[in-house]
Design a protein that fits this description.
The complex is a heterodimer of chains A (about 80) and B (about 575).
Chain A lengths: L1 H16 L3 H19 L1 H4 L6 H4 L3 H14 L14
Chain B lengths: L2 H27 L9 H4 L11 H12 L3 H9 L4 H28 L6 H8 L2 H32 L4 H20 L4 H21 L13 H18 L6 H26 L19 H8 L7 H9 L10 H26 L4 H7 L7 H17 L3 H37 L6 H16 L7 H5 L1 H25 L5 H27 L3 H30 L18
Helix pairs in contact in B: 1-5, 1-14, 3-14, 4-14, 4-16, 5-13, 5-14, 5-20, 5-21, 6-7, 6-20, 7-10, 7-17, 7-18, 7-20, 7-22, 8-9, 8-11, 9-17, 10-17, 10-18, 11-14, 11-16, 11-17, 12-20, 12-21, 13-20, 14-16, 16-17, 17-18, 20-21, 20-22, 21-22
The chains are: A mainly alpha (about 80), B mainly alpha (about 575).
InterPro entries (chain B): CstA, CstA_N
Main location (chain B): membrane
Keywords (chain B): Cell membrane, Membrane, Transmembrane, Transmembrane helix
Chain lengths: ~80, ~575
């Protein structure tokens, strides 16, 4: 009974989320790109008023940053001091 | 004639079609193979390509294709009598729509989940793909313009639906917040959401809203259309999780509830059909049954739009190829059920033939209003709901169908506008794209007058362009079957009938538009006729080429095998 209820709930959630999965993934990526730019603003040459708070988030962004610059058509990191690849 | 046997015969035909004909199609024609590695597995990315349970996928597919069209079409077409509409809906679903929807799903799954537009480039030629974009643009434009008028008419004819129709927007906004912001259980949210929706229906029934005339310098008709376009513009610009997603979801749940109560009511009340089987005394100005019946009932018998959904999203989520039979064919059966419900409501919900004839006084009359009034009477006698409450339930159901399709239509049309901008090397932002879309949609709706007369007059053109799209999909399926040296007759026969009827109807309408000096519709119709000829030419060339080339290897498109066939 419990497993049946769980599969019903899973089906319901799939029914809710499925049609919009792609749109939501795209929106999330856009938000992530914006967040990435805010954190890396200083390194990208944009004056960053929140640099003091965001600098310690940089290491967490290396992997994302790598995927981002490849999406932007740059095979290697465009920033000398961000050595993701 | 009693409606109960009609319902039972219809249900038996659909069941027979699914059990027998779809099995024949699956085993002999498409040769569905459970060991075929579907795109959902091969290209699984957690976003587009996700293997999905077949019942859930059927739910997605069915709610995506179900809109106001399977209600509007049959409820207009019964003007020729209930029998032609009944036969076209049942036989059309079994031999045309099921074949077409299952075929589109199969064709796309065999081609890495690509859309019909891309497939037309591969199988018919590059010009086929361009044609596809033109037809899509026209179809979406017609949906946006026509549905604005359908909703406006319902809001005016059933003022008790005003509160639930607009209240559903608030319910959807709250569901979006509850699911995403407060991470509440979806089961609970669903129950509360549906209860709130029906609470609003009760409230609306007690407090009907009739707008003063004029309101803000406009007639109520003009005001509602403007309000709907403003709403659709805002809805299409908001992040989807805020409004569109929860709205589509709650509407999907409501679809099952609404269909359920309508069929149960027919079973319980067994109403008498007052309309004639064949209407010998059609009102003056009613076009001939052939070919107009075949384009008036599009969704509910065969619809090119279903091929877009099949190949656009459903094929990317197919867990096993054999699931295509349930998702594609049974999805078409679901649409047929909705159309059958609309026929019964629009013919058996009136007390006398005179009452029915008063509603169907001219071609294009009846429609959703007849579905709401007639269906309301059936709910009243079946479930004992008060007549006005029953009408409110059905009007709200029809408005929600039309509104979710309209706001999604505006969003999709914006994408087409933005894509066209890219081709012309002009960057069109979201807001600018939406404004262009709204201006074009509203322009078409108001092209015949401030009451939105232009919106519904193009409805027969929706049928023709929709059937044209179905012809394109069927010709792709036929080319694939010929290449594999399988029997193409199950695709070629519906293709020939649908194409001839759509083309014939477009030519008949051309004369009508010329007589009426209606240059806008005449131009759109001309585009459709040119596109139809184009499709025919390209398809014949592609089929001839396919029959002359050496046959395809048995597993030419089987990318990878996983285990033995089951």
């Amino acid at each position: 009974m419990t497993s049946r209820w769980a599969s019903l709930r899973a089906g319901l959630e799939e029914f809710y989320a499925g049609p919009y999965r792609r749109t939501l993934a795209r929106a999330r990526r856009e938000e992530d790109d914006l967040f990435r730019m805010v954190v890396l603003a200083e390194a990208l040459g944009v004056p960053d008023p929140a640099a003091y708070y965001t600098v310690e988030l940089m290491p967490a962004l290396y992997e994302d940053f790598h995927a981002w610059h490849r999406r932007m058509g740059m095979d290697r990191s465009p920033l000398e001091h961000v050595g993701c690849c | 004639m009693n409606a109960l046997p009609l319902l039972l015969i219809g249900l038996a035909m659909f069941a027979g079609g699914y059990v027998l004909y779809s099995r024949f199609l699956g085993n002999r024609v498409y040769k569905l193979d459970a060991s075929f590695r579907t795109p959902a597995h091969e290209l699984q990315d957690g976003v587009d390509y996700v293997p999905t349970n077949k019942f859930v996928l059927w739910g997605h597919h069915f709610t995506s294709v179900a809109g106001a069209a399977p209600i509007v079409g049959p409820a207009v077409a019964v003007i020729w009598g209930w029998l032609p509409a009944f036969l076209w809906v049942t036989l059309g679903t079994i031999f045309f729509a099921g074949m077409h929807d299952l075929g589109a799903l199969w064709a796309s799954a065999r081609n890495k989940g690509r859309s019909i537009g891309t497939l037309s480039g591969r199988y018919i030629g590059g010009r086929g793909a361009n044609l596809f974009l033109v037809v899509i643009f026209l179809l979406l434009l017609m949906v946006v313009a026509a549905f604005a008028v359908v909703i406006k008419n319902l809001l005016i004819s059933t003022p008790s639906a005003v509160i639930p129709a607009w209240g559903a927007v608030a319910v959807a906004l709250l569901i979006g917040q509850a699911v995403y912001r407060y991470k509440m259980s979806l089961g609970l949210v669903t129950v509360v959401g549906v209860a709130a929706l029906y609470g609003l229906i009760l409230l609306g029934d007690a407090v009907p809203v009739e707008l003063p005339d004029p309101i803000l310098g406009m007639s109520p008709a003009t005001f509602w259309i403007v309000a709907l376009f403003v709403y659709a513009g805002i809805a299409s610009l908001l992040p989807v999780w805020v409004l569109l997603q929860p709205r589509d979801y709650i509407n999907g749940v409501q679809l099952f509830v609404g269909l359920g109560i309508l069929f149960v009511s027919v079973l319980l009340s067994a109403p008498t059909i007052v309309a004639p089987a064949f209407n010998d005394a059609v009102p003056a100005g009613t076009p001939d049954l052939v070919p107009l019946l075949f384009v008036t009932v599009a969704c509910g018998a065969i619809s090119g739009f279903h091929g877009m959904v099949s190949s656009g999203t459903s094929s990317k989520q197919l867990d096993k190829e054999t699931d295509a039979r349930f998702v594609g064919y049974f999805g078409a059966v679901g649409e047929g059920l909705l159309a059958l419900g609309a026929i019964i409501a629009a013919t058996a919900g009136y007390r006398t033939l005179a009452d029915w004839e008063a509603v169907y006084s001219a071609f294009g009359e009846g429609g959703v209003a007849a579905f709401v009034a007639g269906g309301g009477a059936i709910l009243n006698s079946g479930l004992g709901l008060p007549v006005s409450l029953s009408s409110t339930v059905l009007a709200t159901m029809a408005i929600l169908f039309a509104a979710t399709t309209m706001d999604t239509g505006v969003r999709l049309l914006r994408f087409v506008v933005q894509e066209a901008g890219e081709v012309a090397k002009v960057r069109i932002g979201n807001v600018a794209g939406t404004l262009i879309t709204l201006a074009v949609g509203a322009g078409l709706t108001f092209s015949q007058g401030a009451g939105g007369e232009g919106g519904l007059r193009i409805w027969p053109l929706f049928g023709t362009s929709n059937q044209l799209l179905a012809s394109l999909t069927l010709s792709i399926v036929a080319v694939m079957l010929i290449r594999k040296r399988r029997n193409p007759a199950p695709a070629l026969i519906p293709l020939a009938i649908v194409f001839v009827m759509a083309f014939w109807a477009a030519v008949v309408q051309l004369g009508d538009f010329y007589d009426a000096r209606d240059w806008l519709l005449l131009s759109i119709d001309l585009v459709i006729i040119v596109a139809a000829l184009w499709v025919a030419f390209e398809a014949v060339v592609a089929m001839r080429r396919a029959s002359q080339e050496p046959p395809e290897a048995l597993d030419a498109d089987v990318t990878e095998k996983v285990g033995p066939a089951r």
